[in-house]
Design a protein that fits this description.
The protein has 142 residues and is α/β, with parallel strands linked by helices. It is built from five helices and six strands; from the N terminus they run βαβαββαααββ. Helices cover 29% and strands 18% of the residues.
């Protein structure tokens, strides 16, 4: 019996549209990460990028539970002394709603070159419109 090894050229990539309106942030992020990694395919291999492209729409209408909008804080540092910046989830959703989903999904992907390659297949838009109609994406109900 021979062992099957997935090759990059054999991977067939599809495009999916995910509408996140009213969906819980963490639950939808884990499902998106699974699609990007390709774990939903029978040919999945952890050392090969066999995932699909994911288009996320309505990022500004994502749901979070409880008082999380005020309690969850995103931090970033400029690299200079005193350069620590913080922003709450509520303010981040008002200014850059795409970043909320980007941060959640990026944390669920591998922290290496393969994970960065997978992350590039994620396209996030705040509103209901996206410029990827030519790829004929399928609407995915999660």
């Amino acid at each position: 019996m021979k062992t099957y090894v997935t090759k990059e050229a054999e991977v067939e990539r599809r495009w999916y549209v995910v509408d996140v309106e009213g969906q819980t942030l963490g639950r939808i992020a884990s499902k998106i990460a699974t699609l990007l990694r390709g774990k939903h395919k029978p040919i999945y291999s952890p050392s090969v990028d066999c995932g699909d492209f994911v288009i996320v729409v309505n990022a500004e209408k994502i749901a979070v539970s409880g008082r999380r909008q005020d309690q969850k804080i995103y931090y970033r540092h400029s690299g200079y002394p005193g350069g620590l910046k913080q922003i709450s989830l509520r303010d981040q959703l008002a200014k850059r709603p795409e970043r909320v989903i980007e941060t959640a999904v990026r944390g669920m992907l591998p922290k290496n070159a393969l994970g960065r390659k997978m992350f590039k297949k994620l396209k996030i838009y705040a509103g209901p419109d996206h410029p990827h109609q030519a790829q004929q994406p399928e609407l995915l109900e999660l």
